[in-house]
Amino acid sequence: MATFLYYDTIRFNKAAGGVLNVSEVLLRHMRLSPEDRVEPVSEQHPRLFALAQRLKISRFVLDTLLYNFHRLRVLLTGEQLFSVFPNYYLPPTPLGRHRDSIVVVHDLQYKAYPQYFGRGKRLFLDWNLWRAARSAADVVFISRSSQRDFERHFGRCGHSTVIFNPVDAPRPAAAPAATAAGERYLIAAYHYYPHKNFDGILALFERMKTAGLVDYLDITGNGADAVGRMVSVLAPEVRCCVRHRGLVSRNELLRLYQGATAFISLSTFEGFNLSAAEAATLGVPLLLSDIPVHRELFTDYAFFVGADDGDPQPLARYLAHHEHARPAWAHAATCAPANVAGRYLMLKRGALSLAGAMS
């Protein structure tokens, strides 16, 4: 039986959004394995974890202290312990080259949009990713697009693989009230960030509404004020049909997906796009920007919106075809949380077998 210590200190950052969601789902399903023991540091060291939260100690400091403590302990006892770091940070240590570790690299947004990151943060990220590339850790990328971005800046890792994010989107029991009322709406389920391209979303919604394809645009997440300023310059008949719902419960979000005419995301950059994957898992049509990761994940499922797509007829045909054919997303099974968790656990099964053979 393999033993894993999962560094869930990403919980310190409540604004982590999709990264935090992915970490929680991954941990929950890794712990369901009957063949492995997976324990989060929040349970292994509850008092220290709570103290660090209360004193607002950086997760990087806590990860470094705990990792080096456990490295020293296993060197003294001969135990075998694997470490999982769900968000890019591989703690520095003088005790080896992280052969016992798995570290997840989500994306390199700071390279695509350096203006939104301070110089100190950019240098810190560079240092961490450079070390990951030169370590003996298993480096997991959440898409091939993200891996290519990484290798362009830091070169190839000694041990790397691509494992898509776990997508936990069970079909809701009840449809949203909007669907029951016969409303046709687009759903944009993510926080406001500049790369999310809300200007483009609003422009496409206006064209679709004018063409009679949808009635409303529903938006969830943070950033209502920023979106509201964009909406305020629209024509009154369009402005009144944009509804920012703010933060909604998980069950309500799933119901909103389920009842939508389509999910829309015109991001200029993504490492994976978890919201689009959730909608696709539920069979919802996708209207997406034509960027590499969207092509990688959603080819033959989504409608890709180009810069010159002013004619709504191809989009109307796509929606009609989707309604008739009801296609399944090709990666739904691959992204099932149990399958994703299994792939993470398998990364160290070979090391465990080798250790057993040598003992």
Topology of helices and strands:
Elements: E1 2-6, H1 18-30, E2 36-40, H2 41-44, H3 46-54, H4 59-77, E3 82-85, E4 101-105, H5 109-112, H6 119-133, E5 138-141, H7 144-154, E6 160-162, H8 177-180, E7 185-189, H9 198-210, E8 216-220, H10 224-231, H11 236-239, E9 242-246, H12 250-259, E10 262-265, H13 274-281, E11 286-289, H14 292-298, E12 303-305, H15 313-325, H16 337-346, H17 349-358
Parallel strand pairs: 1-2, 1-3, 3-4, 4-5, 5-6, 7-8, 7-10, 8-9, 10-11, 11-12
Helix pairs in contact: 1-16
Brief summary of the model shown:
With 359 residues, this protein is of the alpha/beta class. 45% of the residues lie in helices and 14% in strands. It has 17 helices and 12 strands.
Structural notes for this entry:
The chain has 359 residues and is an alpha/beta fold. It has 17 helices and twelve strands. Strands 2-1-3-4-5-6 form a six-stranded parallel β-sheet. Strands 9-8-7-10-11-12 form a six-stranded parallel β-sheet, with helices on both faces. β5, α7 and β6 form a beta-alpha-beta unit. α1 packs across α16. The longest helix is centred in the N-terminal third of the chain and has 19 residues. It is elongated and about 70 Å long. The C terminus is likely disordered.
